[in-house]
Amino acid sequence: MIRKILLPTAVLFMFTACSMKMPTFSMPSFSMPSFFDSEDKDLLSLKEANLCQEIESLDSKLTCYKKIVDKNSYAQLRMGTYYADKKEYKDAVKYLEQAKSNDNIYANLALAFLYYKGDGVKKDIDKSFELLKESSNIDPNAAYQLARFYLQGINTKIDNQKGVELINFAASKGVSTAQKMLINIHREGSFEQPRDQKKVEYWENIVKQNKEDTTFKVYKL
Fold first, then answer.
1. Burial class (CB in 10 A: 0-12, 13-18, 19+), 122
2. How many degrees, rounded to 5, is the angle at CA 78 between CA 77 and CA 84?
3. Which label site among 20, 34, 69, 91 has the fewest CB atoms less than 10 Å from its CB?
4. How far is 31 from 50, CA to CA, in rounded Å?
5. How far apart are CA 49 and CA 219, in angstroms?
6. Domains, the chain, ranges and CATH?
């Protein structure tokens, strides 16, 4: 079970064109006055990138992102994961590094996978670990992946309490794989956790209600 904590790259980057239909599309003009704080700018960037995400045609979607990719960190993030999925790692690293340099914390997860496997960059488990740590309090998927390091003692001493805390955080934010793992943890009493049928039933109910894991949407092209 432990070996399955880290999602395969193919699963992580399983990003396909959105099925939402938009018959017509025109790029709006986004002005960001200087008095906007960083959160306002980040929200506007996300909204702008989401307009591209809603386009059904892949060619049109890519054209949309390319129009804004120089200034929009979410466009950079999504173009980076798109190229990583295509195994075009030079472009993947370029865009993901741009997104990170523009303070998009979600780029850390994709970069952590590249450094963990050595795809497009020199393999660096330390770097992967640090990237996940940096973003784990914001990105629940990064928190879930970081749990593997603590539960298996990768680049750090085994810390079951920290690992389970990270899984709980990810589960509370809607990461379905984390929710399912908590069911097994509390059913079997794994990682120094007591067996707890109430928690098993609680997370089973959450899983039933969680029809779709939307936490990956932020990375999707």
1. exposed
2. 90
3. 34
4. 16
5. 11
6. 2-19+40-219 (1.25.40.10)
